[in-house]
Amino acid sequence: MKVMILSVTAGFGHHATAKAAGDMLESQGAEVRTLDVYEYINRIVKGTIDKGYLFSSKHTKELYRLAYALAENHGSSYFTTPISILNIVNALGASKFARIITDFNPDVLVCTHVFAAQLINEIKKRGLLSTRTIGIITDYTIHPYWENVPYIDYIVTASELLHHRSLKRGITADRLLHFGIPIHPKFSKPITREDACKELGIDANRPTILMMGGSMGYSNHKKIIQSLLTIGMDFQMLVVCGNNKKQYKNLIETLDEYNGKASIYPYGFVTNVEVMMSASDCIITKPGGLTVSEALAKNLPMILVNPIPGHEERNVEFLLNNGISLYVTKTFPVDEAVYHLFNSPARLESIRKTMREVAHPNATKQLCDFIMQMPSDN
Question: Per the domain annotation, does 378 fall within a domain?
């Protein structure tokens, strides 16, 4: 079985999903090739998408929110006019990328970003490709434009609870695979709290909070920590700054002057999040689709902060409406959220119970098993 996985540089989640699926497929004997589609078509467009996504989602939030809502509410045609930049790039790059695919000759194509799916849809529409295709939506919503890729054979969603929404968006039931978002298999492996704390060198008997801000470290960790210290609770905190070196440095400098009873442990980019989650009582995090799925798999209650406009705000709606998380706002600050969570055992148990029902810890295996059972044309 030969599988080609296609992604687009725009945030970390799409690539993490691609790697999780690719690694498991290889462990099952498949030959896998993973590509960033615009790396091969036009590197200028690739850089523009990557930098534009980071800039607009962080510095022009209202504009980004408006653009997402317009695309979501008015259908896929709103921003996909014949002269739109991505349509032009896809039209010009379709034949070139079709040759790249043909050279590898995959049995299955997997797209972890809707832009990649749009390109493959254009290639199949032209009759340049007949390979079976699967698209993966990496958030707890249906992103704009997924309804406009009819040549993608199957679409994986984060939850069966999104079935009705998918139908409303024009995706037929026979194309829907409610497997969940593929995450690294290590998140489905049980680790006791004691073993996780021992590995991290922290006290297993103290309340433990994990804080993450996404791979780029979006959250204002210093401000959040200062707010939590007002509770007067004895706790320890694992603070992951991701790739934000400035934030990490500022946090280290702040802790040098701190002499309170809480224990704060700062980290940069880490590869053992599953261990940290196993050691923690709750996570304060940006509601990215991958992080949410990992927390669900680990049955770790979530306090959500600083969602990126659009898709992450839809993640918040999904989680709140299903009783899975708390959400920090100007009128419900993070210290109150943590206080509520740690002082309401019944609420905490209710959240964990619902999380177990919604979680898809084996999403990656389910997807890979489905792919491996598809008939081979080669």
Answer: no
